[in-house]
Amino acid sequence: MKKLNIFLMMALALGFTSCEEEWVEALPQTNAQEEVFTAEDFAATSKLPAAITLTEADADKQVEVARFDAASNLPEGSVVEFAMFMADNENYESAIEVPVVNVDSVAYATVADLQTAYTTVQGRNPKAQDVYVRYAAYVITGTQKVRVNGLDSYFAGAKVNVTPVHPGFDIEEAYYLVWGDDPENFDLTKAIKFNHSDKDVYDDTKFSVIVDITPDQVDAGFWWVVVPQSTIDAGAISDAADAVYGVIEGEEGATSGMLITNSEEEKCFAAIASEAGKYQFSINMYSKIEGLESDVYREYAITPAFDNLWTPGSSNGWNHANSNMLATTDYITYTGYAYLTGDFKFSNAADWNHTNYGKTDVEGELSTDGGAGNLPCAEAGLYWCSVNIPNLTYTLTKIEKVGLIGGFNGWADVVAMTESITAANDIKYTGTIEVTSVENGGNEFKFRMTDDWAVNLGGTVDNLTNGAGNLKVEEVGTYEVVLDLSSLPYTCTVTKK
Known about the structure:
six-stranded antiparallel β-sheet, Immunoglobulin-like, mainly beta, six-stranded mixed β-sheet, 39 strands
């Protein structure tokens, strides 16, 4: 193959003409492998900005991201183009390609595309963070496009600190439900911190907390507001915007709606809980409401918080006590196994005096109307049930097979277990595993349903939960395993023969 002598210069110019950028020299990156396009003296160096700032006002602006000199010794009619890649780590794991346009030896990307790439790898948080960029080079001759030095070859890798376009809203790291008996004077010592996931608050804008409101608190007046961390740190609620969040005047007793903060046009008000009980207070510090002009809204919802759902129906004589129960970790989605032989309902208490969930005209949807019809189950058997209470939806997944799988059989096909179901409250499966090694996970196992990892049980023998970690035995040998799905928590026994 003809060898080419190519000298290329690339310059990443992601800043704006209105400001000076600090530049750092970036070194070429190559990976040794069999070359699919030989370039004996190919070298790529670049000058990359140490820091850049993106603004929404320049969203459509074409920014120069790579420049290279005209290459010598190329086949007649050939050109060189670059592709740009961005990642959040120096190993470029999960790097994404940034759309660029190559024109007259210069590659361009729009500010909008750079922003999109940045938020994909780093999220929506507006603080400046480092990203890593590098390039692939291609020689194009007619309809043939060949990557220089092979498919894994990159050039001009460097770290760049980027300040992204601000998303137009601010979210603090923590929020608190502050309550008291005086809607005009709150004591910040009565602050209950909202829970949040381990995601960045700009990527998961929802917070929630479980509150058990007593009858005495209701009698005294359970007024509440949402307070950000900065106000807690300040030690007092002020009239400043975003110092406290409440509800619109006239909606103090509502169980859902918009959260607002003080402004020149409107004042927020404390809300009141009128009934005792266990509730989940949920807030979303960034949402969009159809039909309203603003791009940013904050919402709240107060929903009853119950630990379980029951499944009274024809399989258990419509007896709550004998029915299978579903559990929850977030008071939103409830999951569990139920043995169903015909019609049934979901209920949020072990009686008919609370909320029960029946059928609607739409399959998979639930009604809280006490007079709603029963939920149908056309085929008798064991089902994995999933219920979303806020959305009033449910799914039933029939369990066709319960099996054992693990290191003992190289995580290959499951070892089928024998079913023993005599009633809804007596559901057992029995199987045998042969453990020949306790090294390298050879003693680990799980329960997998219907040959699908979507429903599997692990954890500990006295508390099996869906998707939990592997179980294990300590010694080589043959073991009889009995899985009991009759009630919560799910358990198993592992007996060495």
